[in-house]
Design a protein that fits this description.
about 325 residues; binds ketopantoate; 2 domains; alpha/beta; EC 1.1.1.169; pantothenate biosynthesis; 4-stranded mixed beta sheet; 13 helices; 6PGD_dom2; NADP; binds NADPH dihydro-nicotinamide-adenine-dinucleotide phosphate; 8-stranded mixed beta sheet
Length: about 325
């Protein structure tokens, strides 16, 4: 099993570094040639509670993916797509299509909603899964990533309905035998386990995506607006009230859209703040770096779902306007 990781950002370096330390061949596909050179020369520097480990990886700029395919062998290719929703352009998706071997497993790790449909269209020859990760990661430089919050990854197939509707689907996903898929999934979980990454297979990925969307819809815009780390957000009483208002509205919309489960989701949002207390949320990291945020795919998606189900979402609409106005 070998891993091609697209995007040498916080999540890409975190997973790439941990898998490489476990002995798996890892290639990081970057946006810039400079970062690829740095990673290939010096490896990924993984920081966790002050302990530094260095992982050797291959690295190339993604534009060179058709020229520099890693040597073909018969090991399973796993592609982890670790770029932001904002970076999932037609050009990038075309490169993912070129990089993917027939039958590769391609896993989208994006927060929010929107990447699923694009990936299914872009790599019809591969088998697309979705991953929902609750790890906290912060990139400090071209090769350094800090693991700021222990989490897990749920992996599964969120695309059954889409694949059935997709005219371009050549039937590969349908043809793959159930048992074949199960073996590959188990191998993948085993690789994660050897790398110390907690993972599970889920048969209800749409629900997982909604549950993660709820967490991100509350934490990401408010940490970005108030410029605070995740752990600081609920400590301020008026900001905690705002969290609750955003939570209540989002919860209502997502339940209407099909989110299920009896867990106390408000407590889960608070637990994520606590568990990733030192994390700069990915949206705050974008705002600080002057980059476009994923607000349209997070709170924007909640607004679109609300409209679809005949509901109002004024709090989501307001935070989306405010975060958009920060750039
Ligand atoms: N950070 C976190 O703690 C968490 C993040 N997530 C989600 O994971 C996803 C990734 O987030 P995160 O790692 O934080 O984001 P980052 O911004 O840290 O990383 C994205 C990376 O993608 C690279 N990239 C952009 N365009 C291309 C391209 N055309 N080709 C190759 N690489 C490209 C960027 O390169 P460059 O830097 O050169 O622009 C950057 O290194 C997001 O959807 C996020 O919401 C989920 C859970 C937690
Ligand atoms: C879970 C959380 C909020 C961790 O920071 C995250 O997913 C993000 O930053 O995007």
């Amino acid at each position: 099993m070998r891993f091609d990781i697209i995007g040498g950002g916080a999540i890409g370096l975190l997973y790439g570094g941990r898998l490489a330390l476990a002995g798996y061949p890892v290639t990081i596909w970057t946006r810039t040639a400079e970062q690829a050179e740095r990673l290939a020369d010096d490896g990924i520097e993984l920081v966790r509670q002050g302990v530094i480990r260095v992982a050797d990886v291959d690295a190339f700029p993604l534009q060179e993916c058709s020229r520099k395919l890693p040597q073909m062998d018969d090991s399973e290719q796993i592609i982890l797509l670790a770029v932001k929703q904002t970076q999932l352009t037609a050009a990038l998706l075309e490169q993912v299509g070129k990089l993917a071997d027939p039958n590769a497993l391609v896993i989208g790790l994006q927060n929010g909603i929107g990447h699923v449909e694009k990936l299914v269209q872009a790599v019809p020859h591969a088998y697309v899964l979705t991953g929902v990760t609750t790890e906290g990661a912060l990139r400090h430089g071209p090769r350094t990533v800090e693991h700021t919050g222990e989490g897990m990854i749920a992996i599964g197939d969120a695309f059954n309905d889409l694949r059935q509707k997709s005219a371009s689907d050549d039937g590969l996903n349908e043809r793959m035998k159930q048992s074949e898929q199960e073996i590959r999934h188990k191998m993948l979980l085993n690789a994660f386990s050897l790398a110390g990454i907690t993972s599970e297979l889920s048969k209800e990925m749409n629900n997982r995506i909604f549950q993660k969307l709820l967490v991100n819809a509350v934490i990401n815009p408010l940490t970005a607006l108030f410029d605070v780390r995740n752990g600081e957000l609920p400590q301020h009483p008026r900001r905690a009230s705002l969290m609750r208002a955003l939570y209540d509205e989002t919860f209502h919309v997502l339940v209407a859209a099909g989110m299920t489960g009896d867990e106390d989701r408000w407590q889960q949002v608070l637990q994520v703040c606590e568990r990733t207390s030192e994390n700069v949320s990915s949206m705050l990291a974008d705002v600080r770096a002057g980059r476009q945020t994923e607000i349209e795919w997070i709170n924007g998606s909640v607004c679109r779902l609300a409209a679809q189900y005949g509901l109002e979402a004024p709090v989501n609409a307001s935070v989306a306007l405010l975060v958009n106005a920060m750039k």
